[in-house]
Amino acid sequence: MKCQQQQLLLAPQTNLMHKTKLKSIYLSLLVAFICLLLPWSGFALKLRPDFVLLVIIFWILRAPNRCNIGTAWFIGLWVDLATGGVFGQHALAYTVTTFVAVIYQRRLVLFSNSQQLVYVLLLLVISQLTLLTVKTFEGSESLGWAYFLPSITGVILWQIAVALGLNTSRPSRSK
Amino acid sequence: MAGYHQNLDQQQAPAFFARGPSPLARLAFFTALSLALMATDSRLQYLSSMREHLMVVLQPLQLIANAPSMFYESTNEYFSTHHRLLSENQLLRKQALTQAIPLQKMKALELENSNLRQLLDANQSLEEFSQLGEILHVGRDPFTKKIVVNRGSVHHVMDGAAVVDAKGVIGQVTRTYPVSSEVTLITDKSLTIPIQIERNGLRAIAFGHGRDNTLDLPFLPANVDIKPGDKLITSGIDGIYPKGLAVATVTDIQTTQDSPFARIVCVPTGGIENHKQVLLVSISPTGSTIKPDISNNPSKPSTSSQQPINTSANNAKPKATSSGVMNESNQLKKITNEVPATTVAPSTPNKPHAQD
Description:
The structure holds two protein chains of two kinds.
Chain A: H1 2-14, H2 22-37, H3 43-47, H4 51-62, H5 69-83, H6 89-103, H7 105-108, H8 113-138, H9 149-163, H10 171-174
Chain B: H1 2-10, H2 23-43, H3 46-78, H4 82-119, E1 127-138, E2 146-149, E3 162-164, E4 169-176, E5 181-185, E6 192-197, E7 203-208, E8 215-216, E9 231-234, E10 246-254, E11 263-268, E12 277-284, H5 301-316, H6 325-337, H7 339-342, H8 344-347, H9 350-355
Antiparallel strand pairs in B: 1-2, 1-12, 2-5, 3-4, 3-12, 4-5, 6-7, 6-9, 7-8, 8-11, 9-10, 10-11
């Protein structure tokens, strides 16, 4: 309740960008997390895009005042829990990725969709590279180039989402 | 917060730029936090109990995520054809029939073995408990070969239990949660398993290869007596895996002039990627206190293997027959203690049968 009141008070000032509710952010993150928990196996596992990171990037671009590096770090911990790896590796990867996204956020929303697509690909690759570094320190073996397939599928998913009407570029005109 | 923003009204600065600490500060803070977490988790044991508790929170989400595939499978089963069920039934009947004879022999052999061991004053072989688990999902990390099964510490699954399917060993429990446990497959790079060549009894250690579902037998000399087609079985000297389970088959041996070691590639016998049910086998020395509850065990070789000892002993001593289950188990212990005196005679008729 308190949070909602605060939101109402802040409404005229902070919502220069979007009227985004925290609830929708958390709900979408939850759905992405459940997508991660789906029983993927075999080749589908190798193709599985990083749903959670995609949703985080989306909200960072759309509502940076609501979803920030801290959110990404926290969700990263849950992803670590679900994947059963060492605590903190996804959290670190998400932190680094969202940092890059946050720095360029204001420029990014002015990009066209195709330009944004390239940028999202870059972000996904950054996340995977961070993870790869951590894994290499841990002593895991390399997976070859197939390791970067989730970035490609992630971008495809992003494109599908944009085609379905989710838009992050030029927020003033999207409403 | 609200007051801060009301002040902002007078200063013309739009709240658009009011974002709290700078991204760089946040990056530094959260990176340090994650690095600290990683170090703690990989070097110290503080976080393992926290992980168990958090997994309980994750359980309902896991159920939701598993629901679609569960639903698909159950409807698929419901609509399975009459013909398919019939053929499957026939196959299972045949299997049961062909396995019945070796199984009967096995019981006699086990009895004989325990008698001989007692005569020789040798240590009793280890007792095994097994319970049926169902694979919930494959591990989510593409770097590791893991599966998650639906039995956990609530069901007395312990770290280190061997995981077996109908054809052979598939892995080992490496982490237990309350109602699920994580199994590392034998093809994972971090898992090793002590084996024995079935043909000549040569002992070695098999390492998971990691990438292409194979096992390696490293550090064996180039002139080692191993041929393609040799079967690897567990040697049982580790006290983790029961002795004599099928592990893998040798498929390829390469020797080069410049290396003193042979490169031996083996393929696991167990269907690592195409089974739904697995057996979790844990060994505990006889007389151990931990016994899994029977209600959860559809198949339990340990009790069935004890059966012949009981019956033959009862034949030898009619006084020992009793009705209560508790009494029976007590007497079982008593009887096995005095086995050399009483059951040598009933086991002798089995001998010619067992030897062939």
